[in-house]
Every structure is written in C-alpha cells, then in structure tokens.
Design a protein that fits this description.
The chain has 692 residues and is an alpha/beta fold. It has 24 helices and 27 strands. The strands form seven sheets. The chain has a six-stranded mixed beta sheet, with helices on one face. It is globular, with a radius of gyration of 25 Å. The structure holds ligand MGD (2 copies) and molybdenum atom. Molybdenum atom binds next to loops.
C-alpha cells in the first residue's frame, strides 16, 4: 500500500511549498504534489519541483564517496569507501587546523534552505575548529541591508493579502518564474480590477501580463524612487499623519529628493517624464484619494548592482510616505525572513569557536580569495574548502578566477553534492548527499509566514548521507567530543526557533508533525500603526544605523559601476548592459541537468533588441560570443523587442559544462560589491557581443 509523506520544498525560493509525496509499497517516491490545505501552496507546485522525483532518481545521482584521479576540473573520479573518505578528510583538516585554522573555509548557500541540512551541524564543526566564517552575500545581502536600515528587518506584507490590493507594483521581480504563488494572488487582484505595474528593464513573462511595464535601465531604480518622492512632496501625495507618527527623517528625505526632478530622473532611467509623473499620481490617488490598498512586491533584481542597497531603501520609503501600511493588502514585501525568531546561536554554536571571532571570507569574491597568497591583512592563505549546498564554480562572479582558484594544487577541496557539478569536478573528495526526500528538516520562508516541518519519505539512495550526518561523522573522526556535535537531526530542528517568542508561541510541534506547517502569529497589517523593528520603532527614512557608522543616513542614487552613463570609456569598448536573471526551468544551477526541463530550454541564449542586432549584423539563431575584459561565453541569438536597446539578457544559471564552450555568464560578471551588504553585482556588467 502506498503512503503519503509531508515534505517541505527545500529550494531557495520565496514560496517554500508544503508538498505531499506519495511513496509506493516498495519505498519509491512516485508522485510529488502541492498540499491543497497549505494556504501559501494552495495545491500548486512550480514547473521545476513537479520534477522532483525525476531529479531524485536521476541516473547521474552521486551514490558513493569518490576520490579525484585526473587533474582538477577534469572530472575523473574513482569510488572509495566512506571510511577512506572520512580518514582522509579528518587527517587533512586536523593538520591544517593545528597550524592555521582560518585556512579552512566553508562554502555553502541555498541548495537546501532547511535549518538542519544547511548550517547547524556544519557551522558547529567549523566553529569548533576555528575555521573562517563565510559572509553569505551572493544573493540578497544588499537588499537585506536596505530592509534592515529602513524597516529594521526583512519584514513586510503578508503574501496571502495581495489578492485584495488595488495597485501592485512588481519591482525587479519576474514572479511567474520565481514566485508563482505570489503571482497567483496578483492575478486574482487583477481579475478584481487591480492594476499591475512591472518595473524591469526586460519585458519578462510577468511584465508581459501586467497592465503596464516600465523598462528602466538596469541599476537606476533608486533614481526612479527618488523621482517619485520628489513628486509626492511637490504635489502633496503624502499621508502626513502616518509620516509624523510612524517615520523618521521626512524633512531630510524631502530635501534629498529635491534634486531628483522628473526630467533628471527620466534621463537617468531612460524613460519618459510622463511615465514618472503618471506613476506618481496613480500611486498618490489610489492611496490617498481612493484610500485603496497600494502594494509593492520587490524582487532581488534591482539590488544586484552597485547602488543596490540604496535602491531598496529608496523604494522602501514609498509605502510609508503614502500610509499604505494601514491596509493589510497595502505596503511592501521583499522578504518575510525577519518575522521568524531564528535561534542562530543554538543552531551554529559560535561559542565553540576557540579564537574569538574568526576572519570572514566574502563568498562573492571567492575568486580573489582563493588566489590570495595570504598576508597580515587577509590572514592565512586558504588551504581547504568544504563546499555544500552550492555550486560556486558556476554561480560566483568572475568565474575564470574562481575556477583558477579551485584548480590550485595546494588546495584541499571536499564537495558534498547530489551531482557531479562544475564545482565537484575540482574536488579532491566528493561525498554523496541525500535530497529532501531522503532526510528530515525544518524550514521558514522568505516570502510567506509559515514554518514547515519536512519528513524523510524514502531511504537514502546508494550510500548517500544527509549533510548533518556527514558533518557529525567528520567531527567524530577528528576526535571532537562535544555533545552538540553528535545531536540528531530532529534535536537540531527543535532548536531552530525561539519557541517562546510572540510569533511562535502558539506553534505546537505536534501540529507541525501532523499538518506539516503552521503560520506565525503576525498581524495582518503589522505596521498599520508603526511598530517597525528599527531602533526608533519607526520606518527610518534617515537610518540611525547608517548614521552611527558615519555613512549617508538617507537613500541616494549611486550610478552603476558599469554603464554608458557612468563609465563612457568602458562603454566605448563594451557598450551593452548584460543582465542574467533566473530561468523559469532552472533553480540557479539546480535542475539544469533534468532532461524534461532541458528539452524546454535546450541551450544558453542571449536576448537582444533588433537595433543592437542589426548594428552587429546578427541574425536570429546565430552563435554569438559575449565578452568583456574578464572573459567570454557563447550563446545563441534571440532577437526581440522584449528587451530595450542597449541591454541584453542571458537567462541563467547554466552548468558551465553544459554550455557550448564550457563557460557561462559568470565569466563576464565582476567581483565588485554593492554599496550596502557587500553583495555581488551580477547585473552591473558591460559587455560586447559578436558573431562567432
Ligand atoms: N525558476 C526559478 N525560480 C527561482 C530562482 C531560479 O533560478 N529559477 N532563483 C531563486 C532565487 S535564489 C532568488 S534570489 C529569487 C529571485 O527572485 P527575484 O528577485 O524575484 O528575481 P527574478 O524574478 O529573476 O527578477 C529579477 C528581475 O529583475 C530584473 N532586473 C534586472 N536588473 C534590474 C534592475 O536594475 N532594476 C530592475 N527594476 N529590475 C532588474 C530582471 O530582468 C528580472 O526580471 O528567485 C528564486 N526562484
Ligand atoms: N550571473 C548570475 N549569477 C548568479 C545569479 C544570477 O541571477 N545571475 N543569482 C545568484 C543567486 S540569487 C544565488 S542564490 C546563487 C545561487 O547559488 P547556489 O546556492 O550555489 O545555487 P545552485 O546553483 O542551485 O547550487 C546548489 C547546489 O546544492 C546542491 N544541493 C541541494 N541540496 C543539497 C543537500 O541537501 N546537500 C548537499 N550537499 N547539496 C545539495 C544542488 O545539487 C546544487 O548543485 O547564484 C547567484 N549567481
Ligand atoms: Mo538567490
């Protein structure tokens, strides 16, 4: 008889679905469905995760530990036993830890978002050893800093409420691809008469279905937001009562916005003055005359540029100026993470660290870090990399440097993986990890407000082990005896949150077990009367945190590092702005090797405007090289008016070895960091394109 097991979708996605997995009588998972009772999931899974069993039982799953035979990057490996693998890892790490513990560096990101199989046990081990810490900046840290310095944390509207909004501005997000459950609510609102506006350089799948699409130039969003603020102040589109009682720094913000006239902003953003004027008055009238809910949904697209943190701060001011938070269906959502009282100290045990606070390596500049010889400022040269839940050789910027770094012969690299990824090709030892169907975990979400408990549905395939188990085994083999280094998965799961917090007090472990999920106790309109988790309790237009650091306390427009306006000399050689947003059929580099999805997306492409194509004599379907000083990669031309002239789009993120030249778009991306949060600037990148 078959059974149905409750599993949480583990992927790096705001929607964190509750899944029902059907397991047949011989213990094989045969079906994965969305839980119809979980309000956020509502019985719907995305294109990718409906293929979860295809990915799990993929013929290329890594099933045994392996040792490298050929050169680094070549991908030649031979099967070994777990004992051999653990002996080698324990002895190498012990030797390095005795001499220079900070030479050991973990590298991990969003392969799984569960608290048990992501950090937790891994962090405990690295803390105990005194290894380097990793600054996890590759995705969202600019936006997170923007949120924190304006609202106090990643907090905002309830995703479930958007179906009741009257005007929804989708800013730097393509939710048909990346947050389909939010999109279903936006569509419900649209059917009820709401207006949807997309702000995006690209006419994305979602932008095509919105009532209006405003195609700003990449990296100019802060200017647009400051232009809107300029008009709000000029025309009196302001909720004075909300501003006086629940915000700080209005006068200074108004002064800052004074120079952002619609004419100036139109020039920066590459859009007509009338578009800015019309957007400002539509927002103002809907919020203040009609008193209807105005909602913003921010993605991470606008923060992968030099001024990304400031852009998020500037946009985050808008709903507070309009008093939009008064309605449950009004306000803004970028991330809901800040509502979850995560108990990081219990999970990661930083107190185990023998050397106080160890040095931190920024994951977005891992190329330079791996190539650094070591000195007083940098600290010890990196000697060991332990990679789990991430594929840095494909996802980190300035990829040729990353690959060169991983190719160092004096580097000891261990990769925990499901598949032989581009990164696994550089490993000394590859360890086979379980998927979410094979292990247990606990999850929050960054798009909704539910905690989810995930149960193992099937036995581990081959000799696969959960990450947490692998780190327990390494700790034991190294002779480390702290009890917390042997805690089991469910013991760790129970430590993930502070359960006495007002948001979690009503959540019962038994309910999580039987129902799979439970919602945080957060008000429908949490900021209707202020109460932001900032030091002042108000929305901080002028940030006390930034002021204390001696930084500009107000949001401003910082031009991209690389754009024709800000860097004409560079643009003379590399005139096109490249963005590389997520593809619908992939999840970063996960799922790129799933055949049924690959048939829908057979090869890397570059979308470009007919004018840019004609200038270069490029025809539809031609093979192209995309290049700048950092490197090049190859794609097939797609000529379309979906993208504005001067900007090109390479949907991402391809496995390098599945690209036609063994490369992907991160060859050309730079290691420059954002204004706030030290994040990567993937969409701040000038290139030139030519036929091959
Ligand atoms: N199918 C699928 N889903 C995913 C992912 C995936 O790879 N595939 N990745 C997951 C992850 S890790 C994340 S972080 C989230 C990302 O989710 P979002 O942050 O919502 O990212 P996208 O939906 O790709 O939206 C980015 C949009 O920003 C646009 N953009 C680029 N530059 C700019 C700019 O300067 N200004 C503005 N206004 N827009 C800009 C791009 O054209 C793109 O349409 O999605 C998650 N979900
Ligand atoms: N050019 C460009 N580059 C980008 C982006 C972009 O938009 N453009 N987006 C950036 C963003 S937003 C992000 S979040 C990063 C994403 O970067 P990553 O977090 O590295 O995401 P993935 O490429 O999906 O790699 C995750 C890997 O973890 C593995 N994995 C999954 N579950 C487990 C597990 O339980 N155990 C172990 N050991 N492994 C597991 C998967 O098989 C997969 O190979 O990429 C960034 N890079
Ligand atoms: Mo991400």
């Amino acid at each position: 008889m078959s059974t149905v097991v409750r599993v949480a979708c583990p992927h790096d996605c705001p929607d964190t679905c509750a899944m029902l997995v059907t397991v047949n009588e011989v213990g094989r998972a045969i079906k994965v469905e969305g839980d119809p009772n979980h309000p956020a999931t509502d019985g719907v899974l995305c294109t990718k995760v409906t293929r979860y069993t295809e990915r799990t039982y993929h013929k290329d799953r890594l099933l045994y530990p392996m040792r490298r035979m050929g050169n680094k990057g070549e991908g030649k490996f031979v099967r070994i036993t777990w004992d051999e693998a653990l002996d080698e890892i324990a002895s190498r790490l012990t030797t390095i830890a005795q001499r220079a513990p900070e030479a050991i560096v973990p590298y991990s990101y969003g392969g799984t978002m569960g608290y048990v199989q992501s950090e937790g046990m891994a962090a405990r081990l690295f803390n105990k050893l005194g290894g380097s810490r990793l600054d996890r900046t590759i995705c969202a840290s600019a936006g997170a800093a923007g949120m924190r310095t304006t609202y106090g944390a990643g907090v905002g509207m309830d995703m479930d409420q958007y179906s009741h909004s009257r005007l929804i501005v989708i800013w730097g997000s393509n939710p048909i691809t990346t947050s389909v459950h939010f999109w279903l609510r936006a569509q419900a609102a649209q059917r009820n008469g709401a207006i949807l506006i997309a702000i995006d350089p690209h006419r994305s799948l979602a932008a095509q279905k919105c009532n209006q699409h405003i195609a700003v130039l990449p990296g100019t969003d802060a200017a647009l937001a400051l232009g809107l603020i300029h008009i709000f102040v000029r025309d009196g589109w302001l909720d004075h009562d909300y501003i006086d009682n629940y915000t700080v720094g209005f006068e200074q913000l108004a002064e800052r916005a004074a120079s952002y006239t619609p004419e100036r902003v139109a020039g920066i953003c590459g859009i007509p003055v009338a578009t800015i004027e019309d957007l400002a008055s539509l927002l103002g009238k809907t919020a203040l005359v009609d008193k209807s809910p105005v909602a913003f949904r921010l993605g991470y697209g606008l923060q992968r540029v030099r001024g990304g943190g400031n852009a998020v701060r500037a946009v985050a001011c808008l709903p507070s100026l309009l008093g939009a938070w008064r309605h449950p269906a009004g306000g803004l959502l970028m991330s809901s993470s800040g509502f979850f009282p995560v108990n990081r100290d219990a999970l990661d045990r930083p107190d185990l660290c023998p050397n106080g606070t160890p040095r931190t390596i920024n994951m977005s500049t891992i190329g330079d870090a791996l190539l650094h010889p070591g000195d007083a400022a940098f600290g010890a040269k990196i000697e060991a990399m332990i990679v789990y839940n991430s594929n840095p050789v494909a996802v980190a910027p300035d990829s040729s440097k990353v690959a060169q770094g991983f190719a160092r012969d004096d580097l000891f690299t261990v990769v925990l993986e499901h598949f032989q990824t581009d990164t696994a090709d550089y490993a000394d030892i590859v360890l086979p990890a379980t998927t979410q169907l094979e292990h247990g975990d606990i999850h929050k979400s960054y798009g909704h407000r539910y905690i989810l408990l995930s149960n193992p549905a099937i036995q581990p395939l081959g000799e696969c082990k959960p990450n947490a188990e692998i780190f327990r085994l390494i700790a034991a083999r190294m002779g480390l005896t702290d009890a917390c280094l042997q805690e089991d998965d469910m013991t760790i799961a129970k430590q993930a949150f502070h359960w006495d917090h007002a948001h979690t007090r009503d959540i019962a472990w038994e309910t999580l077990q039987t129902q799979g999920w439970q919602k945080l106790a957060v008000a429908d309109a949490p900021f209707a009367k202020g109460g932001f988790p900032t030091p002042s309790g108000r929305c901080e237009f002028a940030s006390s945190e930034l002021a204390a650091l001696g930084l500009d306390p107000l949001p401003d427009y910082l031009p991209p590092y690389e754009s024709p306006q800000s860097n004409p000399a560079l643009a003379a050689r590399f005139p096109l702005m490249l963005i590389s947003p997520p593809d619908r059929h992939f999840l970063n580099t996960s799922f790129v090797n799933v055949d049924s999805l690959r048939t829908k997306k057979p090869e890397p492409t570059l979308e470009m405007h007919p004018v840019d194509a004609a200038q270069r004599g490029i025809q539809e379907g031609q093979d192209l090289r995309v290049f700048n000083e950092r490197g090049e990669f190859q794609v097939k031309a797609v000529i379309t008016e979906r993208i504005r002239p001067g900007v090109v789009v390479a949907y991402s993120i391809w496995w390098k070895k599945m690209g036609r030249d063994g490369k992907n778009c991160n060859e050309v991306a730079s290691q420059a960091l954002t204004d706030l949060g030290n994040a990567a600037t993937f969409y701040d990148c000038l290139v030139e394109v030519a036929c091959i």
